[in-house]
Amino acid sequence: MTNIVLDASLAAKWYLRDESDAQTADAIFYDYENDYVQIYFPPLAIYELGNILFTANLRKRITKPDGEKSFKNFIQHPFEYKIPPYANALQLSYRLNITFYDAAYIVLADELKCSFYTGDEKLYKKVKKDFDFIYYLEQYSPRYPSDLK
């Protein structure tokens, strides 16, 4: 089994069907459910996803009941939550001029020595030159059978 860190922008694609690359996000989830990958998140991902769903409701992209159902679905999955070295995340934030939240995912993946997949193209473009373990969602290679696409 391969360990990976995902960010909330990627996890949101499981619930916001108008998001680009939702099918690739689904492939990651399929691989998780079939024990091909173990997904790690920093605990802050719960808050970020809640905020993404709240904002999506304000923008009429998801109803309140669907947002609540999506959030409950997310927190009921036994994903691995691991606290990243927050001091390192703050240092990385300063160095790369990125949010503390984004830096937390990166330092967690670095600590776990695994890949980090993001659904945030701007973040990916900003940091890809600094880390060889960061990938944009569309770079994910699904392990599921091709007939399930």
UniProtKB/TrEMBL annotation:
- Please name the CDD domains in this protein's record: PIN_Pae0151-like (cd09873)
The record, for SUPFAM superfamilies, names: PIN domain-like
Domain named PIN: residues: 4-126
Q: Keyword Magnesium, does the record have it?
A: yes
The family database entries (Gene3D superfamilies) matched by this protein are listed as:
5'-nuclease (3.40.50.1010)
- Asked if the keyword GTP-binding belongs to this entry, the reply reads no
This protein's UniProt keywords: Magnesium
> Which PANTHER family does the record match to this protein?
EXONUCLEASE VAPC9, RIBONUCLEASE VAPC3
What is the name of this protein? PilT protein domain protein
Which organism encodes this protein? Candidatus Roizmanbacteria bacterium GW2011_GWB1_40_7
